Amino acid sequence: MHSWTQRLLAAATTAALLLAATCAAASALDAFHVPSVEAQAHVTKINQFRKQLNGNDKVTLTFNISAKLESLFTWNTKQVFVFVTAEYENSKNSLNQVSLWDRIIPDKDHANVQVEVKSKYPLIDQGTSLRGKKVQLVLHWHIMPNAGRMMRGKMPLSEFNLPDTYTS
Amino acid sequence: MDWQGQKSAEMLMQVLLVASAVAAFLTGYAMADFQLMLLVYAGGVVLTALVTVPNWPFFNRHPLKWLDTPEADRHPRPQISSTTASTGGKKKTGKNK
């Protein structure tokens, strides 16, 4: 403490330590936050269902999503990544997950999602197991905080059945 | 800066930094604004640096009182004896061999 450089360094070190402690405290408070998400999704149209040249089943579909995601946000939330997956079971795997649509929600003002969309990414099977298959839509979210670890969550939405035959 | 000044500078630094961290966290939480927390804390750190880093006059209110010269002359500094110096030299030459 005898020279000004020593005092400056001591102050900077203590300040950095306390900043880390403050961020840790803010992140710890998030553990007590229980979000209550309300969401629905329904498939409105199967646009195309065919076998690709390489032999894999491919589906493009249209569905509407209604999701109230405001409760995911706390004061320590930077942004939220939401995506909808189609999940089904076949003989090869007990769980297949295919992402159909996603969106980055930057703040609470954009957290009420009401859209009807074509699937952003096609539903492609690794094989030909999709005909007549029962498929579950699941909403997933990844909460990215300002400080702390990323938190994930999901909730099942509606189920739908794919047709027994290819459409084209 | 004298001894008392150094002690109080360190105390002041720690108290001010902890206080600004607590104040920043509370305001950030109350206003639900993470950026506000960082700004309040940055303000607290700058204030702390301004108060404790420069050598302000109030850190120099307890100057050290040195002994007067006649008093110091009565207690001379102990001299290093020549015998210890010579043995030290011998050891050095022995090591170099």
TrEMBL record, chain A:
Protein name: Signal peptidase complex subunit 3
One Pfam family in the UniProt entry: SPC22
Protein task: Essential component of the signal peptidase complex (SPC) which catalyzes the cleavage of N-terminal signal sequences from nascent proteins as they are translocated into the lumen of the endoplasmic reticulum. Essential for the SPC catalytic activity, possibly by stabilizing and positioning the active center of the complex close to the lumenal surface.
Family: Belongs to the SPCS3 family.
Domain of life the protein comes from: Eukaryota
Topology of this chain in the membrane: Single-pass type II membrane protein
Key words, A-Z: Endoplasmic reticulum, Membrane, Signal, Signal-anchor, Transmembrane, Transmembrane helix
Organism of provenance: Lolium multiflorum (Italian ryegrass)
Principal place of residence: endoplasmic reticulum
Residues of the signal peptide: 1-28
GO biological processes: protein targeting to ER; signal peptide processing
Gene Ontology cellular component terms for the protein in this record: signal peptidase complex
Lineage per the UniProt record: Eukaryota, Viridiplantae, Streptophyta, Embryophyta, Tracheophyta
InterPro entries linked: SPC3 (IPR007653)
Subcellular location: Endoplasmic reticulum membrane
TrEMBL record, chain B:
GO annotation terms (biological process): protein targeting to ER; signal peptide processing
Location in the cell: Endoplasmic reticulum membrane
Superkingdom of this protein's organism: Eukaryota
Keywords: Endoplasmic reticulum, Membrane, Transmembrane, Transmembrane helix
InterPro entries, A to Z: Spc1/SPCS1
Positions of the UniProt region annotated as Disordered: 68-97
Membrane topology label: Multi-pass membrane protein
Segments crossing the lipid bilayer: 12-32, 38-59
Any one Pfam family match given in the protein's UniProt record, by short name: SPC12
GO cellular component: signal peptidase complex
Coarse class of the protein's main subcellular location: endoplasmic reticulum
Function comment: Component of the signal peptidase complex (SPC) which catalyzes the cleavage of N-terminal signal sequences from nascent proteins as they are translocated into the lumen of the endoplasmic reticulum. Dispensable for SPC enzymatic activity.
Similarity remark: Belongs to the SPCS1 family.
Protein name: Signal peptidase complex subunit 1
